[in-house]
Amino acid sequence: MLLIRCPYCGLRPEVEFSYGGEAHISRPEDPNALNDEEWGDFLFMRANQKGAFRERWVHTHGCRRWFNVLRDTSSHEIHATYEVGAPKPDVPGAAKPVRKPRARKSAKP
Amino acid sequence: MVLLGEPEKAMKRFSALSLARNAFTHHENWPRQWRSPEPKPDYDVIVVGGGGHGLATAFYLAKEHGITNVAVLEKGWIGGGNTGRNTTIVRSNYLFDESAHLYEKSLQLFEQLSQELNYNIMMSQRGVMNLAHNLHDVRESKRRVYANKLNGVDADWLEPEEVKAFCPIIDISPKARYPVMGATLQRRAGVARHDAVAWGLARAADDRGVDIIQNCEVTGFRIENGAVTGVETTKGTIGARKVGIVVAGHTSVLCEMAGFRVPLTSHPLQALVSEPIKPVHPCVVMSNAVHVYVSQSDKGELVIGAGIDSYNSYAQRGSFHIIEGQMGALKELFPIFSRLRMMRSWGGIVDTAPDASAIISKTPVDNIFINCGWGTGGFKATPGSGWVFAYTIAKGEPHPLNAGFTLDRFTSGALIDEHGAAGVAH
Ligand SMILES: Cc1cc2nc3c(=O)[nH]c(=O)nc-3n(C[C@H](O)[C@H](O)[C@H](O)COP(=O)(O)OP(=O)(O)OC[C@H]3O[C@@H](n4cnc5c(N)ncnc54)[C@H](O)[C@@H]3O)c2cc1C
Ligand SMILES: [Zn+2]
């Protein structure tokens, strides 16, 4: 079981939390301006890194607030937790911050 | 005697006679079941991933389409991924037409696979029961039974007493925390031996000329003018006219190397086995509501599947509380197991798609094809998946059976929403 540091309540066991998947995906300002491909990307395409990954958790059985976690998906090591809106912490040991997901291409039929 | 440079001995057929003959030499003189060749400079088709699906793809490329200049590249050992880690439930009673047709094709291939491969895959059609615990479950289950029958998939609805008759160790008392209000039963469903499926397919593919290359990790793709020309591997660059990616939990990693995205997330899925006991459990029982699926192996161990961990992971292990919850549910349903010891647990990394259905598709890179998204339930699809994927690679277009399973459904919105339909799909 993971031990997760809620930025508001401190270190708590994983069972108190729920998972929210990839972090830093913002809802398009004007959904009507998107074509089907862009809308499909927003709904379904997700970064799924092996290694350092920024993700959302919510402290369901605690303060019920959402926050972000920088965690390694190979080792499960949690590098940092940070509040929504706070600057993204760097990956320890990495020369530069984690790469942004590459430009979104999507499938042709 | 095999001389250096001479091709290794051809496949030897298994038969009662060959078993008897080899008994005289204490079974020490069986030839190798498949070769371990060095990679050639190039192939017509490279299949990345030596799990059941990749091996089946290579086998059907050779058998159905006469394409034999094929390599299967596996970074570890064949069948060491989810194929060798799963709870081996094989069934075809899915709700939606697309799924029912594809899984039924696979079940029919499974039914002949031992004969076809000349390799005993220990297919045991002992019946799979999916339990209903509340009124909603009952309605959904009956709906699935009717849908299955319309699609020619065998299905029965059982009342609680009939459930008890089919599997006497289940507690059907109305006082139970999750009372059993009935079940669907697919009698042709059951279990098969996972390793045997991988080995049998490998042996038969090798016999038709396919090179199975283990300890060979794909680390990149050669792409020119939007089309693939080869792969980079830990054994050097290998040319390819076409490439099929069949790497389950690692699909996103490989697709990123090729420069396109897929709508998948990777999660741990765990299973465990108990100490061996006498035969007490005659069938396979699945319960979506309490999330139990359990059968008993020929060795006598209970084989029990757990749920996925919510978080993304590539670690091939999950959290303990998942197993704890699993054991509570198991004990509730089968009080007889309350003192049973659990011996081993392990995890695999499953690739889940937003609609819990597979993606068997062309990609934005010409001549790269993907077969993924089988998530928690693709063992049952092994031969069917290989069969349609071989067709897709050979023809460059999907077969009607996988036409609905393409990547562009995430743009068109034509999802195959087995998530809602099955809840969980092992
Ligand atoms: C615990 C558990 C229980 C399950 N229970 C069931 C069940 O009861 N019924 C059912 O139908 N399904 C079940 N499943 C799902 C089923 O196991 C999978 O859907 C299926 O086995 C996938 O087969 P595959 O060949 O696609 O993947 P795998 O067998 O995982 O094969 C993929 C292969 O790709 C290789 N690979 C990865 N990256 C590279 C690379 N860069 N280069 C070369 N090779 C690479 C891996 O080493 C691996 O061997 C279960 C899964 C798990 C984990
Ligand atoms: Zn909190």
Shape call of chain A: globular
CATH class of the domain at 1-25 and 50-90 in chain A: Alpha Beta
Number of separate strands of chain B: 18
The overall pLDDT of chain B, averaged over residues, is: 94
Got a strand count of chain A?
A: 6
Structural Rg of chain B: 22 Å
Remind me, CATH topology of the domain at 1-25 and 50-90 in chain A? Answer: Folate-binding fold
Heteromolecules bound: flavin-adenine dinucleotide, zinc ion
Beginning-to-end CA distance, first to last residue of chain A: 41 Å
Count of DSSP H/I helices of chain A: 1
Strand content of chain A: 25-35%
Helix content of chain A: under 10%
Overall pLDDT level of chain A: 89
Major sheet: arrangement of strands of chain A? 3-4-5-6
Stretches of chain A where pLDDT falls below 50 for ≥5 residues?
A: 103-109
Q: In this structure, how is the largest beta sheet of chain B organized?
A: 8 strands, mixed
Helix percentage range of chain B = 25-40%
What percent of residues of chain B are in strands? 15-25%
In terms of structural class, how would the helical and strand content of chain B be classed? alpha/beta
Describe what this molecule looks like in 3D.
The complex is a heterodimer of chains A (109) and B (426). Residues 103-109 of chain A have low confidence and may be disordered. In chain A, 8% of the residues lie in helices and 30% in strands. Chain A has one helix and six strands. With 109 residues, chain A is mostly beta strands. Helices cover 29% and strands 24% of the residues of chain B. In chain B, a hairpin with a 2-residue loop joins strand 9 (218-224) and strand 10. In chain B, the strands form three sheets. In chain B, strands 1, 2, 8, 9, 10, 11, 17 and 18 form an eight-stranded mixed sheet that branches. Chain B has an eight-stranded mixed sheet with strand order 5-6-4-13-14-15-12-16. Chain B has a two-stranded antiparallel ribbon with strand order 3-7. Classes of the chains: A mainly beta (109), B alpha/beta (426). Chains A and B meet through strand 3 and helix 1 of A and helix 7 and helix 10 of B. Bound molecules: flavin-adenine dinucleotide and zinc ion.
